[in-house]
Amino acid sequence: MQCTSKTYPVSFVVTDPKGDIVINAGKLLQRNGYRIKIFNTINFKKSMRYNPFTYIHSEKDILKLVTTLIANTKGEQKGGDEFWTKAETLLYCALIGFIHYEAPVEEQNFATLIEFINAMEVREDDEEFKNPVDLMFEELEERDPNHFAVRQYAKYRLAAGKTAKSILVSCGARLAPFDIAEVRDVTAYDELELDTLGDEKTALFLIMSDTDDSFNFLISLCYTQLFNLLCEKADDVYGGRLPVHVRCLIDECANIGQIPRLEKLMATIRSREISACLVLQAQSQLKAIYKDNADTIIGNCDCSIFLGGKEPSTLKDLSTALGKETIDTFNTGESRGRELSHSLNYQKLGKALMDVDELAVLDGGKCILQLRGVRPFLSDKYDITRHPNYKYLADGDKKNTFDITRFLSTRLKPKPSEVYDVYEVDVSEEDDTAAPE
């Protein structure tokens, strides 16, 4: 609702579970000059297209894409032999490198990658057999022996027939989501324009399911490429700082998947006019995904706000961070014997500012804010209905409900005052060049 000012423009990247934020605030943002971008992994028919291949500009971008893909599609398996992961990485790098450098622009997508995998037949009893993909790489090697894709594919080809077949099966299982027609369609080309978020005011909504994480890896891919693209653009085009600040509001941070090297990104993006707000149900969620790097990520956040919760480790860490207060205690004593005597003892002790049990029953209307350089303080939560722009939200007036289907519709609806040309096309006439029956 702030919508920022003209002197300090800000773009928003919002993780939107269930898609209710864009419906509620979309019209308000449009009213204030924002471009709206929507990527919807719940209903792909209500989504703009997102093609990760569009943002590949160099060999290192290929490796970043493959690393993110593997990190977020490994499922629930723990440990395992790293050989298979490394072998898959080689094959993905080779195929994506071939697609990026050799394929037409319209074929640079995951659908083409799936077709490559499907065409890679391996015969265990015939080591000399060459499938169509082998022949394509041989032809490319003759033209350019030092080609990136050729070098990666040569390493993959060192695997024997049975091993190569196992690698292909693993690749097919990992890329299974891209075999779904809707996913192939939504990744066919790109409409999100991630590299322009730092150029003009934009609100990008990443809609994800909060109950099914089957396609959340696409959200993680999007964030990874977004951070890399904006950092490179800030350094190469704008001298280190983007003209439009990009604020990432990453709700359900633990459920979108793993963003590789997030602990380093959190420390470096701020100098480039990029900020990230991580929203978690409990800090333990972050530790489950990022392991030892979770503390580094938390340490790079200048501000943390506790809205309430009951998770023990989170409450314990917060109680420790709040520190202690000094309290005065006094004890009285009375001794009875031949004579009656009294004693009084004063002491100064340290007590936790808020114990775990106090934090667990924190009033729902209160929050605790920790800001760098300032002592933590207890505050009332802001009542958003008092904001001057609240009336422009769908919550304030149902007329302000943002219609995603209508927004994404490609049908043009001319206004009465617009001037346009009308052409009549007669499709009944046969093409003169058509062959006779």
Present the secondary structure layout:
Blueprint: E1 10-17, H1 20-31, E2 35-40, H2 59-71, H3 82-102, H4 110-119, H5 132-143, H6 148-156, H7 161-174, H8 181-186, E3 202-208, H9 216-236, E4 245-250, H10 262-268, E5 274-278, H11 283-290, H12 293-299, E6 303-306, H13 312-322, E7 324-335, E8 341-352, H14 356-360, E9 366-371, E10 377-380, H15 404-408
Parallel strand pairs: 1-3, 1-4, 2-3, 4-5
Antiparallel strand pairs: 6-9, 7-8, 9-10
**Gap between N and C termini:** 65 Å
Give the low-confidence spans.
Answer: none
> Helical percent range?
25-40%
Helix-strand pattern: EHEHHHHHHHEHEHEHHEHEEHEEH
Describe this structure in words.
- The protein is of the alpha/beta class and 437 residues long.
- The strands form three sheets. A five-stranded parallel beta sheet has the order 2-3-1-4-5, sandwiched between helices.
- The chain has helices at 20-31, 59-71, 82-102, 110-119, 132-143, 148-156, 161-174, 181-186, 216-236, 262-268, 283-290, 293-299, 312-322, 356-360, 404-408, and strands spanning 10-17, 35-40, 202-208, 245-250, 274-278, 303-306, 324-335, 341-352, 366-371, 377-380.
- Helix content is 37%, strand content 16%.
- The mean pLDDT is 85.
- Helix 10 (262-268) links the parallel strand 4 and strand 5.
